[in-house]
């Protein structure tokens, strides 16, 4: 078993602590949080060992799970990597692309593995259809949330939209060509609602909307490709796949047939992929253990986390030009 520790014991950090403690792949060593009162309360309630310093925790672990505020990601991750420990780090990987590149260089130098916590990659609905998404040419995503002060230290792009950026980059096999965006600050100092258009070299276009001031919650993505439409509901963990194929000469009475302007007939049919229920956070942590033990590339590598951050920062930079 890999000895694991958690840096940061806030809302998400406590979830990570609980899951690492439950996992058969890890031995939870303990945690470190700069808030001594909060640390004492967690230690008393759950019995997890708290360490007196970040360095002491890192020294005791094989894997360090960084769940601190984004502003401290780079400093924490740098210490983990230079100590020769494997790194799991919550999204976004760092505050800047430059910091992310430094971590990539350090990880290669010290021979450690790193994974970024883009948890939607492990959403059971997305996992059920990801293999069906083949060369999408138009993508539309909406990620809407009710206002919560937690997370407003960063733009809605880094708080919410980056989930969809990463998911889209994982299925579009092409380089980004152009990025256009607009964002509005309503209650926070940084944008609370944003829209972005990402154009890829292969002609694919992705239109993304994110808001943290919505009256309702929504986390949906729709992928359009030749002869198929695939919808993923990340919130309700549901998916829909609609496909088209050449219509048979003699379709049955219940077949749904469309005829285009050229007279070509297509039959519409529905595919209902099986959705395997899971705990997405536990899955991402345990697949990281697989990557370490089998010496394979993590599902969401530091490089992929950097690519998602790069696009997110392009979107944010465009706000400043408005």
Automatic annotation (TrEMBL):
Every copy of the Gfo/Idh/MocA-like oxidoreductase N-terminal domain together lies at 3-118
Write the signal peptide boundaries: none
What residues does the GFO/IDH/MocA-like oxidoreductase domain cover? Answer: 153-216
The entry lists its GO molecular-function terms as: nucleotide binding
**Gene3D superfamilies per the UniProt record, alphabetical:** Dihydrodipicolinate Reductase, domain 2 (3.30.360.10), NAD(P)-binding Rossmann-like Domain (3.40.50.720)
Q: Which InterPro entries match?
A: Gfo/Idh/MocA-like_OxRdtase_N, Gfo/Idh/MocA_Oxidoreductases, GFO_IDH_MocA-like_dom, NAD(P)-bd_dom_sf
Classification via Pfam families: GFO_IDH_MocA, GFO_IDH_MocA_C3
What name does the UniProt record give this protein? Answer: Oxidoreductase
- Species this chain originates from: Pukyongia salina
